[in-house]
Amino acid sequence: MLTRELLGTDLYHIVHWFLVYSFLGWIAESIYMSICNKKPTNRGFMTGPFCPIYGFGALSVYFILRPYSRNYIVLYLGGALLATIFEYLVARLMQFIFGSVWWDYNDKPFNYKGILCLESTLGWGLYTILMFGFLQKFVVRIVDSYSYRRGVLFGNVIIVIVAFDMSVHLIREKKETLSEGFDVIKERWKDIRS
Predict the structure, then answer these.
(1) For a disulfide at 18, which of 27, 55, 79, 90, Cβ 3.0-4.6 Å?
(2) Containing domain of residue 153, as a range?
(3) Of 105, 101, 65, 102, which Cα lies nearest the Cα of 82?
(4) Is 83 exposed, middle or buried (0-12, 13-18, 19+ CB in 10 A)?
(5) What are the phi and psi torsion angles at 99 (to 5°)?
(6) Mean pLDDT lowest for which of 13-17, 40-44, 50-54, 118-122?
(7) CA-CA distance, 21 to 135, in Å (whole number)?
(8) Residue 5 phi, psi (nearest 5)
(9) Distance CA 48, CA 26 (A)
(10) For residues 105 and 87, is the Cβ–Cβ distance under 8 A?
(11) Number of domains in the chain
(12) What value does the mean pLDDT of the chain take?
């Protein structure tokens, strides 16, 4: 199964690249937010060190823009646009599921409803250049540094842990959102009855 190809790459590598990008995204976000907050901050919404949004985002941008890997202007503009669209779609999905978005750009200039901002869009373009110029090679080296057999075992264990961690946090978040929603309904019902 993991030897099947998708988008010209076997599933084994796609899964492992996803895991590495999710981990690297967590590191980058946690360092950035720790500096901003002036205290250690776990930026992931899960307990473990993974931000799956970075895994999905990085691989989406990589596979869509790979034909333009030598054209840095197209990479920059395409990466900025694709990542911003992805960020917007994730924000809308979060609003639909949880009633809120887990980031807020309202204090940033040129923001759109607090879910997008020019600073991040420009940053996504830069990250795309870095990904094609350096990061993807680094990620490939990491994944190729261990045997396929160990990789399958390692990948399966990590996926189970991440899936469990994500499920627990999604259930907890949804429960809190539902509880808050019921509190609002109770308050409105009291107002109507009075």
Answers:
(1) 55
(2) 5-193
(3) 65
(4) buried
(5) 80, 5
(6) 40-44
(7) 9
(8) -100, 145
(9) 9
(10) no
(11) 1
(12) 86
